[in-house]
Each structure stands twice: as C-alpha cells, then as structure tokens.
Amino acid sequence: MRKTVLVYGLALAVLTLFLKTIEYKLLLRDWRQEIYIAIIAVLFVVLGLWLGLSLGRSRPDRKDSFEANQKAIEYLDLRPRELEILEAIAAGHSNQQIADRLFISINTVKTHLKNLYQKLDAERRTQALQKARELQLIP
Fold it and tell me: Is the pTM of this model over 0.85?
C-alpha cells in the first residue's frame, strides 16, 4: 500500500511540476513583449534619474553665479525697487502680479516701469529686457 501511495504521489508531483512548467512557459510566451517593455522602462527610469542627479550637481546655479553690472546700475541711476521690477518682468509677471508680489499699487508699478523705460531708452518691455540683459543688469 505504501508503495502505491508513493508511486501515485510521485506521479502526481511530476505531473504538477510539468503542468506548472507548461503554464510558466505559456505565460512567458503570452506576456514576453510586456515583460521586455517593463524591463526597458525601468532601465530608462534608472538611467534618467542617475543622469539628472549627476548633471544637476555639476551645473552651477545661474542666480548664484550672476553678478549685476554695478557700474551700469550707478550710471543709469537705477533704484533697488526698479531692479526688483525689472527682475519680475524678466520672470514674466504682469503688472498686477508684480504689484501683488511687492505689496505696492499697480500705479506705482506703472510709474517704475515708465522710469525704467526712460532710463533704458526703451518703449516696450521686450526692449527694456533686451537692453537690461545687454548691460548685464539681469541674468
């Protein structure tokens, strides 16, 4: 009796192992493309993170390395508030956003802009920004 149970048990184990192997092979065949895509995606994520971190460390921060041209600031007689407004314009803020950010009225912003346009000999924001960058007043 033991011999029969062992033979049937061994046959059942071999058959189960065979069925699991076939199931695994079919699973691999059905999902092969998705598995390869997932492996490639994980590799690209790891490569991107490593590359971003390594390049981010070696690049100096532009704001830290930029120094405004003090001679041009003195020559044009630019006030600190006018420089703040010039930097806000360079950041793409509207007059209302500048007023909210600096806690001043919109009319004060317009007055500072008018003074900036006169001092930089500009008629528009784009001209003022271009001349300010040429004179190294802003990064």
Answer: no
Dump pLDDT digits (tens) for 95-130.
999 999 999 999 999 999 999 999 999 999 999 999
Q: How many whole angstroms from its chain centre is CA 17?
A: 51
Please list, in sequence order, all residues whose beta carbon lies within 8 angstroms of the beta carbon of residue 11, skipping any fewer than 6 positions away: none
Q: How many residues does the chain have?
A: 139
CB under 8 Å, gap of 24 or more: what pairs does 75-80 form?
A: 76/119, 76/120, 76/135, 77/119, 78/116, 78/119, 78/137
DSSP state of 71: H
